[in-house]
Design brief:
The protein is α/β, with parallel strands linked by helices. The chain has eleven helices and 15 strands. Strand 1 and strand 2 form a beta hairpin. The two termini are 34 Å apart.
C-alpha cells in the first residue's frame, strides 16, 4: 500500500496515525537544485520552486502537510476547516469507482464502487467536510505553515457552516473561520464553495450574489492575504460568466474543479455508501480530467477577454506529469493533484525532475 492517506482506515485513524506509505518515510527535503536556486515561480504572490501541489482533502493535519513538502509538493492545502468541530461521514469514505469513459459533468451517471482501491484510478470522496475544533486545528495549521521550506507555501482552506440562523450568520461564520486561518499564519486562503457532500445542486458556488457578499466580507477582514475560490463545474457559460464577473474584482484567483458527482452503487445495485444522503458522491481521479480541463479553459478564456488579474489553479484528474502539462496548456497558473498524489506519492518528485511546462 503506497497511499499516504489510507482509504481502508477511518478518517479518525488517518488523522491520528497518518501519513502512511512513502509519506511516512524520511526523505531529503530538497533536491540539490532546489537547495541552491532561488524559486523561479510564484503562487498567489508567494515564491515557489514549482506551482504544483496537493489540494484540500487528503492533507488532514500538519504531519501530512510536512510530508507533502518533503516529497516536493511545493503547495500544500490544509484540509478544509470550520469554526466548530464537525464529524466525518461514516466509514468508508473512499471507494474505487469503475468507469468506462471520462465522466460527463453535465450528467449524473450511476457508477459501481467497491473497496478494491489497489486497482483504482478514480475514487469516491465522501467525507462531509470534517473539522476539529479551532483549539485543535489552529496550532496544528500553524505547525503546517512552519513546515514549508523556502520556495514552498501552505494554503489554509476553509468554509462556513449553515446553522439555520440566517444569511448574516452564515457570512459571519465565513469571516470568523478565515480570520482564524490568518491568525494561524496561513499566507494564502482558499474558500471552499464546492464540496459535493452538502448537496450537489445546492453548492455555494452556484449562488453568485451570496458568494460575492461573503468574499467581500472575508477580504475586508483578511486584508492583503490572497483569497482563492474553489469552484465546481458550471453547466452554462452564462452562469460562469456571471459568477466570475461578480467576484474577480474581489478575490485573487480560482481553483477548478472539486469533483464530479455520480450516483454510487455496489455490485447488487444498492447504494455503495452507508447512511442517508450519500447516494450521490463526488468522484475524483482519472475519470474527471476532461471535465477539469474544460473548466480551466473556460475560466482562462473569460480571464483573457475580461483582462482580469486573477490566478487560476487547475485541479482534477492529474495522475501523471503529462496531466500537469495539459492543465498548464489549458490556462492554469498552478496545478494540484489529490488522487494522483495518493496513488503515486512520488508524483511531486516526478514533476520536480522536469522543466515546468509553458
Amino acid at each position: 500500500m503506497t497511499w499516504f492517506y489510507d482509504p481502508r482506515a477511518t478518517y479518525e485513524d488517518n488523522l491520528a496515525h497518518g501519513p502512511f506509505g512513502a509519506f511516512a518515510q524520511d526523505a531529503p527535503r530538497d533536491t540539490a537544485a532546489d537547495a541552491m536556486e532561488a524559486p523561479r515561480h510564484t503562487f498567489a504572490g508567494q515564491p515557489v520552486h514549482r506551482p504544483f501541489g496537493i489540494p484540500a482533502g487528503p492533507l488532514v493535519n500538519a504531519a501530512f502537510c510536512a510530508a507533502a513538502f518533503t516529497q516536493q509538493f511545493d503547495i500544500a492545502v490544509y484540509k478544509t476547516v470550520r469554526t466548530a468541530a464537525h464529524a466525518s461521514h461514516p466509514f468508508p469514505n473512499c471507494l474505487a469507482v469503475r468507469v468506462q469513459a471520462p465522466l460527463d459533468p453535465d450528467r449524473l451517471d450511476t457508477l459501481c464502487a467497491d473497496a478494491d482501491v489497489d486497482t483504482a484510478r478514480s475514487i469516491t470522496n465522501s467525507f462531509g467536510v470534517p473539522s476539529r475544533d479551532p483549539d485543535a486545528w489552529q496550532p496544528d495549521m500553524a505547525e503546517a505553515v512552519r513546515a514549508a521550506a523556502p520556495g514552498q507555501v501552505l494554503v489554509g482552506s476553509f468554509q462556513g457552516t449553515r446553522t439555520g440562523a440566517g444569511e448574516d450568520a452564515y457570512v459571519a461564520d465565513h469571516v470568523r473561520v478565515a480570520t482564524l486561518c490568518v491568525e494561524a499564519g496561513a499566507p494564502v486562503l482558499e474558500m471552499n464553495l464546492s464540496c459535493p457532500n452538502e448537496g450537489t445542486g445546492n453548492l455555494l458556488c452556484f449562488d453568485t450574489a451570496l458568494v460575492a457578499r461573503i468574499a467581500a466580507a472575508v477580504k475586508e477582514a483578511v486584508g492583503d492575504v490572497p483569497l482563492l475560490l474553489k469552484v465546481a463545474h458550471f453547466r452554462t457559460d452564462e452562469a460562469l460568466t456571471e459568477f466570475l464577473a461578480a467576484t474577480a474584482t474581489i478575490v485573487d484567483g480560482y481553483a477548478a474543479i472539486n469533483t464530479v458527482p455520480a450516483r454510487l452503487v455496489d455490485a447488487s445495485g444498492a447504494p455503495a455508501l452507508p447512511g442517508a444522503g450519500r447516494e450521490v458522491g463526488g468522484v475524483c481521479g482519472e475519470a474527471i480530467l476532461p471535465a477539469a480541463l474544460g473548466m480551466v479553459r473556460r475560466i482562462s478564456r473569460w480571464r483573457a477577454a475580461a483582462g482580469a488579474d486573477v490566478a487560476l489553479v487547475g485541479v482534477g484528474g492529474v495522475m501523471r506529469v503529462e496531466d500537469v502539462a495539459a492543465h498548464v496548456a489549458a490556462g492554469a497558473d498552478a496545478v494540484m493533484s489529490a488522487t494522483g498524489a495518493m496513488i503515486d506519492p512520488q508524483l511531486g518528485r516526478r514533476v520536480a525532475s522536469v522543466s515546468w511546462p509553458r
